[in-house]
């Protein structure tokens, strides 16, 4: 069971809801993924017009925990304002903190992210910051009191997979809160690898919504996350420089 603050979650695949070709495909992909947590940009919702159609309208939101994010924020102040708007609208007390410092690479700004988390923690939010694979920033944020850290595997939407597995392993190895690998995942191999490294969960969006068959890819990602965690828990054999015979040599007949 994945525990984030006061929230207990069985599925370790968190799914974004954007970029789907239509709402029917989105709904079927969400169902196929088995996810319990949906993330979305607060800025895409018509919070001031709750009766207007929105991109979540085909989903039974009572079945899911909602993880609104502050996508579009470039400063701590903007992120805090978006988070407070989400909570005032009754969405959830959890917030994924995204403060982007570079629009081309869509990389998070570490200083503004830290400032936003500090304010939101004081406000009583369950805080999940999206960060680069920066060991020291992950450490400092945990000391601050965040409820999870979300290092990127590679830039958002790039599909480049896990570029620096060692950095993720360092973060995971010293983590005191859940580590959710977020951004850059392309294939089920990437998702399984993240879990094999010891991640507590994987968050993705484009890998599913941008697939030729999003529903089938959602199923594949669900199975990959499960397989990766099972493999980690089962205890994988060590990597060796040379071959080791798969059959025992003791007691073999000699000629």
UniProtKB/TrEMBL annotation:
Q: Which reaction does it catalyse?
A: [ThiS sulfur-carrier protein]-C-terminal-Gly-aminoethanethioate + 2-iminoacetate + 1-deoxy-D-xylulose 5-phosphate = [ThiS sulfur-carrier protein]-C-terminal Gly-Gly + 2-[(2R,5Z)-2-carboxy-4-methylthiazol-5(2H)-ylidene]ethyl phosphate + 2 H2O + H(+)
Q: Keywords of this protein's UniProt record, alphabetized?
A: Cytoplasm, Schiff base, Thiamine biosynthesis, Transferase
What EC designation does it have? 2.8.1.10
The pathway that the record names for this protein is: Cofactor biosynthesis; thiamine diphosphate biosynthesis
Which residues act catalytically here? 96 (schiff-base intermediate with dxp)
Question: Which residue intervals define the domain Thiazole synthase ThiG in the entry?
Answer: 4-248
Cite the InterPro entries for this sequence.
Aldolase_TIM, Thiazole_synthase_ThiG, ThiG
Cite the binding residues for 1-deoxy-D-xylulose 5-phosphate: 157, 183-184, 205-206
Tell me the compartments it is located in: Cytoplasm
Q: Name one GO molecular function term.
A: thiazole synthase activity
Q: Does the keyword Ribosomal protein apply?
A: no
Pfam families according to UniProt:
ThiG
Asked whether the UniProt record includes Transferase among its keywords, one would answer yes
Described by its record, this protein's role is as follows: Catalyzes the rearrangement of 1-deoxy-D-xylulose 5-phosphate (DXP) to produce the thiazole phosphate moiety of thiamine. Sulfur is provided by the thiocarboxylate moiety of the carrier protein ThiS. In vitro, sulfur can be provided by H(2)S.
User: HAMAP family, from UniProt?
Assistant: ThiG
What does the similarity note say? Belongs to the ThiG family.
Q: How does it assemble?
A: Homotetramer. Forms heterodimers with either ThiH or ThiS.
This protein is called: Thiazole synthase
Write down the species.
Answer: Paenibacillus hunanensis
- The gene name on file is thiG
């Amino acid at each position: 069971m994945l525990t984030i603050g006061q929230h207990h979650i069985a599925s370790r695949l968190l799914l974004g809801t954007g970029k789907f070709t239509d709402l029917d495909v989105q709904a079927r992909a969400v169902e196929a993924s088995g996810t319990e947590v949906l993330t979305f940009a607060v800025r895409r919702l018509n919070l001031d017009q709750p009766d207007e159609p929105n991109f979540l309208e085909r989903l039974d939101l009572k079945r899911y925990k909602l993880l609104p994010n502050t996508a579009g924020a470039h400063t701590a102040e903007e992120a805090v304002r978006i988070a407070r708007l989400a909570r005032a609208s009754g969405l959830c007390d959890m917030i994924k903190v995204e403060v982007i410092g570079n629009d081309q690479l869509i990389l998070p700004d570490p200083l503004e992210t830290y400032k936003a988390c500090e304010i939101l923690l004081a406000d009583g939010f369950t805080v999940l910051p999206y960060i680069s694979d920066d060991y020291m920033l992950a450490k400092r944020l945990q000391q601050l009191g965040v409820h999870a850290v979300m290092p990127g595997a590679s830039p958002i939407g790039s599909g480049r997979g896990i570029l620096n597995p060692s950095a993720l392993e360092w973060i995971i190895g010293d983590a005191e809160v859940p580590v959710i690998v977020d951004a850059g995942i392309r294939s089920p191999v990437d998702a399984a690898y993240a879990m094999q490294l010891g991640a507590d969960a994987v968050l993705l969006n484009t890998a599913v919504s941008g697939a030729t068959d999003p529903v089938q890819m959602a199923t594949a990602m669900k199975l990959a996350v499960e397989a990766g965690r099972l493999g980690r828990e089962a205890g994988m054999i060590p990597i060796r420089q040379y071959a080791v015979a798969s059959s025992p040599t003791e007691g073999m007949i000699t000629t």
